[in-house]
Amino acid sequence: MSDADWDQLFDEQHERPPGATPAQLEQLNVNLFRPFSTRELAEANIVTVMDAQHIAALKDDAPQLLATAQRSPAHSWVLPKRQLPITFLDLLRWSDGPIVAHKKLFLQFFTTSGINGIREMLLAYHFPKYLPGFVPFALDGCGNFAAFDMRGAPANGEYPIVAMSSGNLFEDDAVVVADNFVEFCYGSRSLESYLFD
After folding, report:
1. pLDDT digit string (tens) for 139-185?
2. What is the pLDDT of residues 10-66, one digit of tens each?
3. pTM to 2 decimal places
4. 3-class DSSP assignment, residue 44
5. Which intervals hold domain Knr4/Smi1-like (predicted)?
6. Are residue 58 and residue 105 in the same domain, yes or no?
7. How far apart are the C-alpha atoms of 77 and 132, rounded to whole Å?
8. Which residues contact 155 (CB under 8 A, 6 or more apart)?
9. Most buried one in 21, 29, 155, 159, CB count within 10 A?
10. For the chain, how many structural domains are there in total?
């Protein structure tokens, strides 16, 4: 468990669902990085084909998007083989998917499962395709993600936190905003300010 006092840390608590149970956290650890199911692959490939067709119409303006859509069918996507930081799991124990703010940092955390679950959002936005090794855990209400950069080994069980626009999921445009999860939560700037100021 972390030393963070989530009740004190977040100035505003817009929604605070009950905390995740030990069983829910165990299921998250088991399911988050498991191989894709046939159904998940089929759904992702349908969207990938649609992406390629849509982007092809923009090929003069968006060659990077077209190249990415064409080179990455869903069956080739890889998920990181890592554990989520203990500090993040501690937040989920406090509340499974809270909507909170600290100063100018507004966050809609994803849940352990369901339509707003971490795995569901990771797949819905094709993170393994555009940003392999990155795992989103929250949105800011303005279309920007906060994500763990899990490409490298953890430092004391923690990963760097990055901000990125949901409409521009490219590594070159991801901005490191903190070295670890608790440091990120204590941040006083909006994700938008890191990306666009």
Report:
1. 999 999 999 999 999 999 999 999 999 988 888 899 999 999 999 99
2. 999 999 999 999 999 999 999 999 888 777 776 776 555 445 555 555 555 555 555
3. 0.84
4. helix
5. 83-184
6. no
7. 8
8. 179, 180
9. 159
10. 2
